[in-house]
Amino acid sequence: MKAPRDLRRLTVFAFAVVVMGVAGLAFTYKMAEFTMTMVHDEIAGFGVVAVATYLIGMLPIVFVTLWAVFSGKFSDVEAPKLRLFELDREIERGGELATERSRG
Length: 104
Prior knowledge:
Elements: H1 2-40, H2 48-70, H3 79-92, H4 96-103
């Protein structure tokens, strides 16, 4: 039973590596294109604002994603959904959460 789970993890990891590789190549190409535009264009520095804005917006997303992956935030992505269903059933039964909600 463990083998299919390991195979799934390996498949997801391989897919993520391929997607990140393609995205990295596209990013590198676009940055090289902007750099060439800045160096060889008649209007020097026209692309600097575009590149700076892109980097300022992209770098925090990359760092937060890496932090989440390495800190284990993606280890059980189904747990919040299951907890939500559990809380919903408790409220529907009129349990403790329902009585606290009516008091507040």
